[in-house]
Give the backbone structure.
Amino acid sequence: MSDQALRTPFSERAGAALRDTSLQQALTLATTKFIGLRKEAFATYPQGERARDQARAIKEATLQRLDHYLNMLADNVERLGGHVHWATTGEEACETILRICRECRVKTVVKSKSMATEEIELNEALEHAGVTPIETDLGEYIIQLAREKPSHIIAPAIHKTRGQVADLFSRVLKGQFPADPEVLTAVARKELRQKFLQADMGITGANFAVADTGTIVLVTNEGNGRMVTSLPRIHVAVMGIDKVIPSMTDLMFFLGILARSATGQKISVYTTLVRGPRQPGELEGPDEFHLILMDNGRARQIASELREALYCLRCGACLNVCPVYRQIGGHAYGYTYPGPIGILLTAMLKGDRAVKDLAHASSLCGACQEVCPVRIDIPRMLIELRQRLDRERIAPLAERVLFKTFAQVLTTPALFRLAATLGRLAQRPFVRGGRLQNLPLVFARWTKGRDLPPVAARTFSERWRELR
Ligand code: SF4
């Protein structure tokens, strides 16, 4: 999202999303479908729960020796004839890719879906340098034509209805296309075919990178990933350093749970294993292979409260079940990664100030942790993030004072009893239809968009005393 758009407060962005009926329709349809498919997929996979535990343990063990596995991966990629580049920041990663483009006279790049390249705004950097990037995943292609950003980790155009996509194609591609997914897919396929053949470079992300073989693993459903990695003369893979796993045996655990969590499939339609450039005797593959190992704020999180967020497989399941995401969609969050895990990743990449409001965009219901294939404890980390905002005095003063007072009242029985009595008296003018509405002063913002249950006529301890 542009800086301009980010200057609009989160509450206003969320409010606009709530009033957008097309968005509400598209979100409900898509997330409900994803939730159902995931549920069915795990219901018929009895070993799923064990695989989730195992995958989580592998992620934790890998983080404990991250430098070791990254060096092993780099050595093996180079042994296979690839080039490895280390990038501390997103800018460094972009600069490395632009340098390769300059040296190899690259004019056109085809890309397969990659959140890492969204994270570093690679398309903007390429365009600025005179290189044309073309997204080839259907969802990414749609939002590139619309000049928007993805609104979901695995379904970038989830916020668009088929009618909106038909209108977009008709306007940009100069035709009259019906709102029929098959027709629209065929249109995109025809447009993209030529681009694959023209492109000098293919850029992908990496779902996993296997250290002991130097294999980059791409999980896709459309086959475009294979064309991106095999047709152009150069392939560049950009990955966060958290994507490395030790071995092919470990990979099996992740493949078993990733597609089930993301789309409810047993396994994605295409699982592509890339091992360096084309080898002698091979018919397909690029002349050159480059792997960008990007930190961009990840390594410093290993020792922080947000460490577990580095386990994330980017399956998107936590977005689909999040009651906040399901209402406001991805764009209202304002950054590359939306949803509950997105809040943590944004804090990781952009700093705590960026999530001053977003840290509260969660009901802490725990649904995200329940569906996460690696059982990331997102609610706990969101609470820790809120504490950090308080400690670092990033949260607004009124909020800090209010919550401190609230904590004091809840932990002091005499104060709690007094507050209950006063609250019962003070709330009288504001109770309507059994709910507290239109509170005054600092509470006014809270009840502007929601209501609250009133303080009970008798507290639990008063009733307990009577019972005894
Ligand atoms: S936090 Fe878990 S559920 Fe959410 S995207 Fe990451 S792996 Fe998937």
